[in-house]
Structure formats: structure tokens, C-alpha cells
Write the C-alpha cells for this entry.
Amino acid sequence: MTTEIQVTSKSFVQRDPGVAIRERRLGSITGYSGTPDELVQISRTGRLQERERSFTQVGTCSSFCATLQLSLIQDAVVINHAPAGCAGDFPMFNLYNRYGQGKRKLDRRSSRLLTTNLNERDTIFGATGKVLEAIHKAYRTYHPRAIFVTASCTSGIIGEDLESTIEQAEKELGIPIASVNCEGFRSQVWATGWDAAYNAILRKIVRPAKIKRPESINIITFIGEDYFSELLQPLGLVPDLIVPFTKIEQLEKLSEAGATAQMCSTLGTYFSAGLEKEYGVPEIKAPPPYGLTGTDTWLRELAYVTGKDSIVEQFISAERSAIKPELEELKKRFTGIKAFVAAGPSHGHSSMAVLQDLGIELVGSCMFHHDAKLDHGDPAGDTLLAATTRSGRMPYSVCNKQSFELVNLLRRLRPDMVVVRHPSLAVSIAKLGIPAFFIDDEHLALGYRGLIRYGKKIFNWLRNPAIERNLSRYSSLPYTDWWLEQQPFSMLEGEL
Amino acid sequence: MTSILQHPRQLCALGGQQSVAAIERAIPILHAGPGCGFKLHTGLGSYNGYQGGGYSGGAAIVSTNTGEKEVVFGGETRLRSVIDGALKVMDGDLFVVLSGCTSELVGDDTEHVVSEYRQRGIPIVYAATGGFRGSNIIGHEIVAKAIIDQLLEPRNVIPGLMNVWSSVPYQDAFWAGNLASIRELLTGLGLKPNILFGPNSGGLEAWRRIPAAQFNLVLSSWAGVSIVRHLEERFGTPWLHCPTLPIGGIETSRFLREVQAFTQVDTAVANSFIQEQERSFHYFFERAADFFLEFRWDMPGDFVTITDSFYGIGVSRLLTNEFGLLPLHQFVTDDPPDEFRRSIQEDYAKIAPGISSDVTFTSDGEEINNILRAAASSSPIVLGSVWDRDIAQELGGCHLSLSSPITDRLVTSCSYLGYNGGLRLIEDLYSSILTLTQ
């Protein structure tokens, strides 16, 4: 892997707000059914085609993802320029915020979120005046260090010119104010919203480094517990978990770090590539540190980039020996258990590796989208490619949270358990009587010790699937017998 | 409310999807952006008492997920394809197509597309719920009127049958429990309540019975009035509007007597039911009185409600008239239409003999907090949403979430309506205070 970092002359981060959607930038798709081997191969050749569904259930949008990351910055405010319904996710972000503050021994306080509450009149006459008013209100109430204005379908369609409004307010208030182009209709890949949020941070917040802090490692992540310290401290490195629960001052200095890594390659692909290409912070391109081999590889690359090669091998072998007895015990317990994974790509691939290391057999998986490549463009960082070593010919699909498809598929595969990420899906799986293990803390399985933590938690979940048993007896799924007899992917274009 | 909101408490008209999901075996079909259905489920269902998706809500909600292609070229083809799929894939009795901002802004003729399916005899209706049209409470009314107008036919009147329009499903996290309480109360009077949402309500069949009702009841400050006016026009059904939540002994008895007088059900049956219910209520009141009279350490003396108008005045009267607390300042957060505001204000001006309260119509966090900072002299009880935890803490008061959004409580069948609902609120409120003391 390359460690020679060259700051490119041509700007990676667009100075005008906006990042191309993933469909165009990364060749991402939301519909596929086949195997990892095949998908990797087609992705490489550039012949990968999106296959739309003739019937769909609710997805998620970019605005959700963008606002989630930005609203957790502790001294910023997010203004959603949208009708009030787009603020439906505010209570969720507020819960994440208060829960996470409690975990981190911070004072609990509500998220700083506003909506411009667009109405019918605004859709006719425009409402940039409301944006300006909201910025002043946000400033008056919270005295934030930065303000982010997230766009919506409505603001996009009516053609709101956010930039000149923001420019005016920025001059007046003297703090960074960024528009975030996360209109829901622009992309079917909601991960595009992460890119939009990070684009705003790269454009408006991060500053060129005056000093370097080589021991500091940016870790792009969500809200999970800090298990990264377990892996970094022994190497003399300090994880800086970003963006949730940071402050603006901390984000300004991301350029000083020794490297950038991430818990999920599809989450931070744009951000980590941007930090490397714009600010010279090397990106750890190896798949994230989940599972034995994944953790080995990731640690070796991190050590190489940060000059810790001399101590990493000793650490790896010590950690591997430390967990061995418990891991062997867990593997015995899981003998004969078959699992299915439904999650976002990359983290889903990580979960696959973890389950296999625990001795669980994988019978299939479904990822919520697929990126044909990542922003760094290095095939060695391809998490699906890494997964093909063990699961190349396993049934593998790409499905953006379509519950009808998943239910149909799982009724056929009948795994003993499903590992599932993203809210509201678990209950559909559980109604089939299949234990549905929801990944709330995405760091739980991290590193070597994570295998043990995760294994114990799953084992206990499997010991008493009373909820699933009761649901399967007394509740029903809203799908017709006709549908359940069709092939699971028959609504994908070109199949029916 | 069209102003900028810090910490909104209602969502948009497309939130009417939740009212569809609350009708047994009804399937919501959204002609909207990819994130709309999930965001609305998140705000009204999941992160509001963890009410969940149920049968056809949550991840099961059908949606066209309109993208760039539909914005540029129009989304009617996509809508037809998704409706075709829904009719084959989804096992339901009633299908409601709801339009979101995107499809309305680009000018899709959703009404026409849906009417083609209805003409083929399919129980499917269209509700124009573009998000910018108003709150999800308006969306709830739009959905109800859509079903009424597009599916219902006149029927012979069934004596004693009374349609109930009250708690807005999911917006009020306690809706299912509250509707069950109304069913018990009306049945006790000798009426036949037609409950339209929630368990054992009957789904589409209950909705088809609407024209057969002898009466319509709106038990809500304002939500539902436009529905019963509409029903009066179409089917001539007389309606009774009870704007004050019947909670506790006094208000519940007052409500029952009002319904008795309006419907002319047997006075003897009504009186005996009311007396029995009151005896039970006062049995528990008497026993709890030791606690109220003697447990005075750090007990707050005044209260603030920051709630939908559905709860505000009823809860204020309960706490004032029956439990001796004093109102500080009250906030009505659900943007009642102008025609209802005067009477709401008058209600607050006479909560109890000689006791009144100022009231502000707003759901903006900044405004609420500023007024409370100026008004509070002691540590108040704050009955509001989870957004109000911070101000309660700042004022040294205590807090109970009663109005959306609620993320600090799990809600299943709990009801804050009727005699038992009053006792339940007092239990929950004082339990939360007692937890702080030990």
C-alpha cells in the first residue's frame, strides 16, 4: 500500500458546495443479486449497472445521514431548510446525543436543531429570508462555533440560493456557516449524505496544519463506545473519534493528525480521501479492524504509516494469544449455527468476518448499497474483496432496506440468526421467528477483544429468543402468500 | 405555525401515514422522497414512546422513493408501477396513497392515477398530504376525509352508534390506550362507540360503518372538527364537540353527563355508571391523600404544560381542581386554527374558581424557554416533551413527558383519559418526582 502522500494540485474537495452523488462518483448501486466474487468482478470492469425495483418500500435519504453526523458536533447548530416533517429524525438524533453525552460523562443537553418549517407560500415565493432569520435565531440562542444549513427536496426543487444568503450571514457573524447539499431526491444511496456533511466540514471547518500531531489518529465513526483505544494505545497512538461528540476546534485540527482511519469504509470514504488529498493526512485504506485477519492487516498498515512497525507484531501476537482460550470456547458453542447479515456495506462485510471467526456459518447476506469503488480508488481497501476470501460464492444481494425482499429471502434461507443494522428492520425478521441481533454499538466487535464481547452478547441473545417466538406466534407480516411464493428478487428490473 | 422552530413538536401533513398505519390492515403508499416515510415513522412512531411500526408501518411502508428522474420527468409512471406492486405484494384491506412535497411540486396528477385503480373496484384512496401543507394533525384530517369522500356510501342509521374522533394516532403516544378508555366510557353510558383506529377497531369495516352512526363525537380541542363538519354535510350526522380532555373525577363525569344530554341515552343507566366510576376513583383518591397531604419535602407547587391542546386544559384542570396545584404558564404547541384559539384562551382564564393561567400558542423551544425563565419563581412541574427536560432542569423543577416527542418513556397501552387516566397521570408524575428524592 502506498504511503507516499502527495497533496494533489487539482482540488479534490469542491470549493463550491456539493459533492457528486455516489451513483456518479463511485458507481454505487442499490439493486443486485448474485455472489461477492461476481460483484467484485463486475465492479472492476466498470460494467456494473443499477437495477431498479418496480416496487419499493421506504428507504432513507441523504438528509438523514448528513444531519445525523452534523447534529452531534457539540458546539455547532444544524438548520434544516425544509418542511417540518423532515425534522422527524430530530428526536432520534437528540436521543443519540443525550445517550452519548451520558456515556462520555458530558453534561446532557438537547441537540441544537432548528427547522425553517417551509410552508406552501414559501414554495411559491422562496424562503432564503427564513434561512437568514434561522441563522440569527441559532446564533442568539446558542452562540455556536459553526452553523450548518442542510437542504431538502423542497428547497432543492424550488431552487433556493443558499450560498449568497450564507455568505452575507457569515460576514456579519464571523463564524463558519456551511450549506449541505443533501436533497433527498438526488440519490437513492443515502450514504451520499455522509459525503455532503463531510464536504461541508472539509470546506468550511478543517484548517491547514500549523503543527503535526503524528500520534493522533482520526477515526471516522458514529456513536459507538471507544474500543479503538484498546488497539491504539499499545502502539502509542491516540484515537480521535470524529465527527460525533467533537467540538469545532477539534475538527479544525484534523489536518494535524498522523493518519485517518474509519470504522466503516463506506461511511468515511469521502472524508478520509479528502483529508489525505487536501491536507496530506494519510488514509488507512485497509478494511476496518474487525475479525482476526482484518485487525491484523489494519494494525500493520497503521503501524507502517505511523512508524510503529517495530512493536506491532508483538502486540498482534500477544492479543491473539490473550483471546484464544475464550475464542475457542465460543466457537464450540456456535458450532452448527447459521447466520445471515443485513447491513450497510463495509460494516456488513466486517460483521461477516466477525461471525466467521466465531465459528458461525454464513448462509447469505444483503447489503444496503454497493460502491463499485471507494474514493481512494485502491482495490486493496475493498472490503467486499476482503470478504471473498471466505465467502466468495455465498448468496449475496444489494437491497436498500426492502423489507418485503428480505422477508421473502429469509423464509427460504431459514438461518438460525440474522445480524441486522439500521432501525425498523429487525421486527420483520423476528416475526419469522428468527433471532434478530441488532447492531446498536457498531464498535462492539472491534479488534481482537471485540470478538469475545460480541460473541458473548450474541450467545446470550440466542439463548432466549422469546421475543421472536412470541412474535412469530401472534403477529403477522403484511405480505401476501403470492409474494412469498415469488423469487425474492423478482421485483428487480429485468427479472419478472 | 409557519415560523422557524427550534425543536419542533409536530411534523408535516405526510405524517398522515401514521393514521393509515393505525387503521387495522390498512396499507400506506407514499408518493414521496426516499427518506420521508422513515423520517416520519422515526419522529411519530419510534422516537415517540417507542410505538414501533406495527403491521403496515415502519419498514413496511410502501414508497415510490422519488428520485431525480421523477423530479425531472414526472413520477406518474413510477407511481403506477409501485401501486401495481403494492396490490400484489401487500396483504391489506384498504390502500391509502399519500403524496409528499416532491410529487406535488413537480405536478404529478396522483389523484387521477389513484382514481383509475378505484374505478376498478379496488379499495384505494388518495390523500394530498404534501409536507408543506401543514402539520401531521392536518394530515390526519386529510386522510380521514379522503377515505370518507372516496369510499363511503350512505347507510341506514344504527341507533346509539357513535363515531369517535379523538387522540391523533402516533402524534399522541397514548392514543391506543386513550381510545380504549373512550370505548369503555361510552359503552358504560349505553352507547355503541365506533372506534376507527387501533386494536379491535375493525379496520375498513369500521370506516364503512361511519355513515351509519347516529352521532359523531369530537373529543379533542380542535383536531377532528373539520372531519365531523364534513360528515354532517355528506350524511347529516349530528356531532358533539367536547374540547376538554376528560381526565380525573370532575372532568370525566362532566364529559359523561354532556354526552348523555346530547345523545339522550337512559339517564338512570348513565347515572349509575357515573356513580360507580366515581366511587372507585375516590376510593383511590382518599388513600393517596395521606401522601399528598404529608409528603411535602421538595414537592413542587406549580406546574407548566407544554403540550398539544388535546392535553393542556384537561391536565391543567385535573392538577388544579383535584390535586391543589397552581398553574404557572401554559403552552399550546399544536397550532390550533384561529377559530378555536379564543375558546382555548377562555378555558385557561377560568381553570378553577379564582384561578387562571397565561397561555402562549407556540412550539418554538426558544420562545418557551424565554417565557419560563421570566415566569418561574420556584421549581415547577414541567409536563411537556423530551425537548423540555433541559429547561425543567435549569429551573430546578421536575419533568414528565406527555406530548411528542417522547424518548424518555416507553408507551404501550397507557391511557391518560377517564377516571383511571387521571389516577395514572398522578402516579406517573409523582413516581418520577419520588425517584428524584431517593
Q: What stands out?
A: The radius of gyration of chain B is 22 Å.
